[in-house]
Amino acid sequence: VLVCPEGFMQYEDYCFLWNNNNGQGRTQMDSTAYCNTLVATLPYPIGDFHYWQKMIQDVTSDIDWDGDAWSGATLQSDEGWIWLDGTQVQNNAWNDGEPNGNGSCSRFEGSSGILYDSVCSDTQPTLCQ
């Protein structure tokens, strides 16, 4: 039985914590560090991508957020786009025309869970998993 840490919301097999840094957002690096202090990571699918995508949609709907937030996918020069666990990002994870070379970090659209590439120094809300 999954037990989420205090402050995290449980969605089936996942635990999530939302933080928008008082409306300021964080860079991808700062979001990663914030999640690490909570013994968590930026969100990425463990197993089936579409199942995870549905969990992202449920979380963002429950907190009434339809904007973007950082995801745990990054562009690696020798491997392409990979998730935090080292698996390749699925082609169907991206919005049409993405990734388009805008950056080496990724963000997801809350209402859909679809990925966009983004400049790592941009600021986005943080969703920890």
TrEMBL record:
Q: Which domain of life is it from?
A: Eukaryota
According to UniProt, the name of this protein is C-type lectin domain-containing protein
Q: Which residues form the C-type lectin domain?
A: 11-129
Q: Which organism is it from?
A: Meganyctiphanes norvegica (Northern krill)
User: In this record, what's one Pfam family?
Assistant: Lectin_C
